[in-house]
Amino acid sequence: MDETYPNVGCELTYSKDYELVIAVMLSAQTTDTSVNKVTDVLFSKYPTLKELANAPLEDIEDIIHSIGLYKNKAKHVLEITNKLLDEYNGVLPSDKDVLQTFPGVGNKTAGVIRAEIFKIPDLPVDTHILRISKRLKIVGPVATPYETEMKLKKLLPEDRWIKTHHQLIHFGRDICVARNPHCEKCKLCAFCTKK
Ligand code: SF4
Question: Helix (H, G, I), strand (E, B), or coil: what is residue 123?
């Protein structure tokens, strides 16, 4: 992973911490590229937390309609921004359990936010990391994302968690893709169950 992906990081575009929360929430079941396209418009039109929290729901729906589950996600944009203003004075909390009380924010999203904003070691497991971990027999075929996260955290030192998270996501997007993985380009063939 270090040879192939020496310098990889988060590909979501954001300039403020709450914008990342919104972007990660929007990225469920869609690509970072699609999210960046809609957040570019959303964050330009509503450049502060207060403005975004007061945006009309219909306008948010209109701006983000090209991504999956946009109606629910538009509601979450308003719920997250209003909760942040009302309960936290606009200051994003770093506690993982607290972050998960925000609508649309689960264990994975909270982990991504903590790693990216607060640099707290975490290894959230998305669909790519889950698939790769199963193919490489790091976990069994029916392991959940949470079980996979725990296993990877046990295997890797804490200072590798954030980097490995990004490396595996890139590997899953470029080489170990879901359908017809490019095994001919893969340096992990010797360990793989699928090759
Ligand atoms: S050999 Fe193929 S399926 Fe296995 S890890 Fe590499 S790319 Fe993925």
Answer: coil
Please name which of 23, 79, 87, 90 lies closest in space to residue 55, comparing C-alpha atoms.
Answer: 79
Q: Separation of 192 CA from ligand 1 center, angstroms?
A: 6
pLDDT of 195 reads 60
Domains and CATH numbers, the chain: 17-117 (1.10.340.30), 127-191 (1.10.1670.10)
How many angstroms separate the alpha carbon of residue 167 from the centre of ligand 1?
Answer: 14
Which of 32, 73, 122, 126 is labelled catalytic? 126
- Tens of pLDDT, residue by residue over 113-128, are 999 999 999 999 999 9
Q: How far is the CA of 33 from the centre of ligand 1 (A)?
A: 24
CA angle 21, 26, 31 (to 5 degrees): 120
- 126 included as an active-site residue: yes
Q: Which of 73, 108, 122, 163 is catalytic?
A: 108
Percent of the chain topping pLDDT 90: 95
